[in-house]
Amino acid sequence: MEELLGAMEKVKQELESMRAKLASTQQSLCEKEAHLTTLRAERRKHLEEVLEMKQEALLAAISEKDANIALLELSSSKKKKTQDEVAQLKREKDRLVQQLKQQTQNRMKLMADNYEDDHLKAAHDHTNHKPSPDQVI
Fold first, then answer.
1. Alpha-carbon separation of residue 4 from 1, 10, 22, 62, 123 (angstroms)
2. Does 77 have pLDDT greater than 80?
3. Predicted structure pTM score
4. CA separation for the pair 33, 121 (Å, rounded)
């Protein structure tokens, strides 16, 4: 009988030890998840900033092409070289406009993905209840 009580006491001690380890591991996991969430938010913010800067650079380049086209058109020179330059600038501007459209689509997709991620995470947080170490046996 004493052997059984001793074995039972040993099992209880092991159980308490495992509960402590579980609690420690759960705490560590929560901290790491919080850190990961912070890093993901920073990454999204940086991506949005980069895409915004790319859009601004493209808009500036388009404006510069427009200004150059206007200057050449106002120069009243009907030379073939001037007309070729205007045509080249218009092609370059069209290429930049296409790039701007692509960047805008990329940015909108990123924003939509972020919106979905935020709402999925919020829904997951409401349904993801972890049991306390006392509830786990």
1. 5, 10, 26, 85, 48
2. no
3. 0.66
4. 12
